[in-house]
Amino acid sequence: MSDQQFLMGKVLIVDDNPQLIKMLSAILRGICTVSFALSGEEALKVAAQQKPQVILLDMQLPGMNGFETCRALKSSAETCNAAILFLTAHSESDFEVKALELGAVDFIAKPFNSAVVMARVKTQLLLAAQTETLRQYAERDALTGLYNRRYFDKKLDEEVAWHRRQALPMAVTLLDIDHFKLYNDGYGHVAGDHCLRQVAEILSESLRRPGEFVARYGGEEFCTVHPYNDKEQAGKIGQYLCEQVRKAQIPQEFSPTASFLTVSVGTVSFVPTLDMKLQDVLACADKALYLAKQSGRNTARTNSFA
Length: 306
Hints:
Blueprint: E1 10-14, H1 18-28, E2 33-37, H2 40-50, E3 54-58, H3 66-75, E4 83-88, H4 93-101, E5 106-109, H5 114-139, H6 149-166, E6 170-177, H7 180-187, H8 189-206, E7 213-218, E8 221-227, H9 231-247, E9 263-270, H10 278-294, E10 300-304
Parallel strand pairs: 1-2, 1-3, 3-4, 4-5, 9-10
Antiparallel strand pairs: 6-8, 6-9, 7-8
Helix pairs in contact: 2-3, 7-8
């Protein structure tokens, strides 16, 4: 197990003893980045900012004790996935049972054994890395590397809820590669897969603003989400995405639309309401996409959700 595997990992040490923090930091030097907090209250703030994979938490803290801090960390969406290891001189079964019930995963006994500290932290960092890899597989489309449909539905639902609370507009686009069947039939499926990856990369590089994201919707269809955009801005987004694909000049000799690859885009702009259904929003974007195709393809059309 190489230390290089853990260099991206983050560990938060929570203890009111600076010398102990210095000792643990020295033990862990080289396998992770270390931050620290001197109290439970400070730990909550640092953990929310740093999002460590592992938290070494002392039981005896000023203000909030270790149990209270553990409970608060596990109750927060920002920190609930961190692996918490208690630093303690306690070995009573009641203590360990309560710690485990609160969400702790392990214990490091005082006084510290450097080899034990290193081994237990490495184990949790490796588990965190493996969990992140599995999460990526669950959320990503295997061919293009974009978010998949399942993640898109989840993320769109979150964005809609946030914009509804703020009473702000947002936009969603459905994008379809023009005459992709002809491309596949003419160049072959291996080239077709490469084409999908090229378009995915173009779309990813085209989204620069905070909160924007793109997903593979299915087949040769993609979907993008754009926070804070009204109908006028949404129309510009659709045309911009068309232009970015055109600029790539990907050859498409089998297309009746152009000699290079093009896309059609349907965009819907809306301010979410409580009774709004996501399938209706997507149906609205799909209608705009249909109008773009009826208009000759290689263009965008915009719809408003009513």
